[in-house]
Amino acid sequence: MQEETKLLSAVIGDVYDAALDPDAWPRALASISACTHSAACTINYHDISKGTALLAHEHGTDPHFSRLYVERYADKNPLVAAIMTEAVGDPKRVRDLVPSQAFEASQLYLEWCAPQRYDDLLGACIYREGVRVGALAVVRRVEDGRYSDDDVDLFATIGAHVHRSLSIGDHLALRRADASMFGSIVDRLATAVLLIDHAGWVLYRNEAADQLMSSQRLGRIVNQKLSLAGVDLQELVASVARRRFFETAISGRSAERGIKLAAIAMSAGPPTRSNPIAIFLTGLPGSAKPSESFLKTAYELTPAEIRVAFGLLAGLAPADIAIASGLSIATVRSQIASVREKVGAGTTSDLIRLLSAASAPIVSS
Asked: Which residue has the higher pLDDT, 165 or 140?
């Protein structure tokens, strides 16, 4: 039992590695195949209206038969339409989807499965949108025996993690350009920076975050899920959704002094996978201010708006900012209103508080 638990833990680790590196999926599928005593494993997508298929990731398959499936047999697979009606994540064997006699009489079985000695399949829907369906599937050959109820339960656990990993991977793919631009800035920061989604999944962290969390024992990241000492992540997310920011002081078991935690939404709107939360871990209150690059990247502020923001952080009144910049008071107030809207602050006081909370970008030498 202990060995099975250890093997399952390794499988889950490989699955979440693939969320960050799609090239790691073949290794993850190899782990799934070994854990379920299967001959092959695939992540596949079908468009039922077009009768087309994509074998996105494969392990243990024969390239010749994979090509044949896509070109000739995808629209002849009776299991696809059946699994389309199943709940996402609910694993099914061949005999759970269609009568065994009907499947063994199908063209797919006779011309594609039988030549490969494929005898049983276990699959779970991991994606559904309109007439498109995605599935995680493993197969056994005749000599391997058929899948048992225990195998189904095990596959349900694995499939849930694959579904989560693919969701993270899809999100990161959609955000790749933004993450790359943001990462080019924060990788050089002496301050620890993490990006999380509304469920606490870590989308990005810089080297300083890894070092600080490790040296000060402030928390940990397990399977890409964040845990911080003494911090309720649900409360943090709710505060950011409601007030646009969250701040507190935390200390780990090895920390000699408190660490300031400031969390802010990357853009207006409630925290979601596409609107992550930035968490900064710094020394307790100092005099640092956000960098121009950070304000431009995080909030899309113009140079003029950044100058106004810095004026407010310096304690200047709108009239003083107008005099210093040679602008009219009406123009300065218009710029302040624009900055408030972009940052998501209801009042100028909230704006100053939010910008102060974002005082993380202290560039390391």
From this structure: 140
Q: Identify whether 365 is part of a domain.
A: no
Closest CA to 280 of 344, 361, 187: 361
Instruction: State the Cα angle at 323 between 337 and 344, rounded to 5°.
Output: 15
Cβ proximity of 309 and 350 under 8 Å: no
pLDDT at position 112 is 95
Percentage of residues in the chain having pLDDT higher than 90? 26
The pLDDT, as a whole number, for residue 132 is 83
Composition of the chain by helix, strand, coil, percent to 5: 50, 20, 25
CA distance 294 to 18: 29
> Is the domain of 193 the same as that of 264?
yes
Q: Can you tell me the distance from the alpha carbon of 335 to that of 245, in angstroms, rounded to the nearest whole number?
A: 22
- How does residue 2 score in pLDDT terms, banded at 50, 70 and 90? low
Does 194 lie in the same domain as 152? no
Of 162, 113, 161, 157, which Cα lies nearest the Cα of 139?
Answer: 113
pLDDT of residue 248: 82
Residue with tokens 């799609």: 22
- Total structural domains in the chain? 2
Residue 309's DSSP bridge partners are none
